[in-house]
Amino acid sequence: MKASQQTTQPETTDQGNYSRVAEFVLLGLCSSWKLQYFFFVLFNFLYIAIVLGNLLIVLTVISEPALHTPMYIMLGNLSVLDIFLATYATPKMIHDFLYESKTISFEGCMAQIFLLHVFAGGEMVLLVAMAYDRYVAICKPLHYTTIMNLYKCTGLVIGSWVIGIMHSLSQLAFTINLPFCGPNIVDSYYCDLTVVIKLACTDTYVPELLMLLDSGLMGVTSFLLLLISYTVILITVQHHSSVGRAKARSILTAHVTVVTLFFGPCIFIYAWPFSNFPVDKVLSVFSTVFTPILNPIIYTLRNKEVKSAMHKLKTRYVSYRLLSHLSLTRLDLLN
Sign (positive/negative) of CA torsion 213, 216, 219, 223? Predict the structure, then answer.
């Protein structure tokens, strides 16, 4: 084991009359070694499941021509974002479970903040785009191919990444130049604005207010847009046939579940940036680990097209393996 946690000495800089800390000390999820060993095994399993589950969706969407539609292209990009959202901090958290001293460099801390808001902001916008796609498909089915063509779909996907990057840069702009001269203890397993800003050696009221206006407003606005769009869709669905109504409700149930699981923790954490609740750690783990693993499960179990495409992908893989084995056997016999 490494040495026990210590507050590191600040690093002198030329950007003002203060010394900037060289690294931050992460307190992690808990202090019990038994729990940390248990979490090491649990989160290793969950992280592998996240990567494999979401990669399976991406490969299925890419390999199956029938899924080359806006809805499934966005679903594939959602899986890509979920992989990144789980990767920016989870591997380090898993690594830190085996060490007593959990530290991260100042640059690494800022990188985590940047990546978190790129992927989370991008996912918020993408979920809104997916709701718009369902609105057009259900409320304006005759004009769907005209309104939601591949060019517009590509624009919405690229736009979600661009907005995520712009949102993250706006958050980082007022954070990276704050005077961090100590203390450097982060009461979490990763760096985020809600805990890092409080460590600045200055009055943090204005930065926290900017964070509330940026992250909080973006999260609440996106969530309200989603609620409005799904409400309109549900009202429209009432006039459909029983079969169409059942199919639409099945798709909407999956979307609403994912939206609630993703936005619930985010809104709670960023709506009260001036307070630090013990439940924040649990919500952070839920949004960065459990939500990315639930997305492929929810969409796969409730979508016949995706399940059918996965079955075809599995059949092709088995056939390919069988043909490869037969070819090798023939070569061996000839030799």
Answer: negative
pLDDT digits (tens, 9 = 90+) for 231-281: 888 888 777 666 566 666 776 777 777 777 777 777 776 666 555 555 667
Report angle CA 295, 299, 301 to the nearest 5 degrees. Answer: 115
**pLDDT score for 335:** 60
DSSP assignment of 248-305? HHHHHHHHHHHHHHHHHHHHHHHH-TT---THHHHHHHIIIIIHHHHHHHHHHHT-HH
What are the structural domain ranges in the chain?
10-302
Q: Which residues 6+ apart lie within 8 Å of 83 measured at CB?
A: 50, 51, 54, 55, 292
Look at 26-35, 83-92, 184-193, 252-261 and tell me which has the smallest mean pLDDT.
252-261
- Structural contact between residues 49 and 83, judged by C-beta atoms closer than 8 angstroms: no
Read off the pLDDT of residues 289-307 as tens digits, 9 standing for 90 and up.
888 888 777 777 667 778 7
Residue 104: DSSP 8-state: E
Fold of 10-302: Rhopdopsin 7-helix transmembrane proteins (1.20.1070)
> What rounded mean pLDDT belongs to the chain?
80
Burial 17-44 (b: 16+ CB within 10 A, else e): eebbbbbbbbebbeeeeeebeebbeebe
CB 265 within 8 A of CB 284: yes
Measure the CA–CA gap between 261 and 256, rounded to whole angstroms.
9
> How buried is residue 14: exposed, middle or buried, by Cβ count under 10 Å (0-12/13-18/19+)?
exposed
Q: Give pTM, 2 decimals.
A: 0.83
Closest CA to 121 of 221, 253, 251: 221
